[in-house]
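Lab intake sheet, docking and co-folding queue.

SAMPLE TYPE: protein with bound small molecule
LIGAND NAME: zinc ion
LIGAND FORMAT: SMILES
REQUESTED OUTPUT: full 3D complex as structure tokens
PRIORITY: normal
SUBMITTED BY: R.K., bench team

The fields below were copied directly from the construct record.
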Amino acid sequence: MRLPALLGGRLGGTGHQRRSGGRDMTEMGLPVDLPLPLEPPEPAEGCEVCASHDVWRTRALRAGDYSRATDHSVRIRRHDTGHGG
Ligand SMILES: [Zn+2]
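RESULT FIELD (auto-filled):
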């Protein structure tokens, strides 16, 4: 009686086909968006802090400094008094 040697041959190897590396990651991850500033918050009426940040935010945008502009937007939304948050 001959043993079916071929059956035992390569079953112990990699059972799964390797997935093409990396390409599937894009579907699982978040869409790659540019870090655009959020919807610009409106400064609260009568709040000097808001008004100030609004001025500086505008200047930053004109200077192309979107990082700083976003920072001012955030502070307008949630600075000390916290209105609008
Ligand atoms: Zn304010």
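REVIEWER NOTE: The longest helix spans residues 48-62.
SIGN-OFF: pending second check by T.M.
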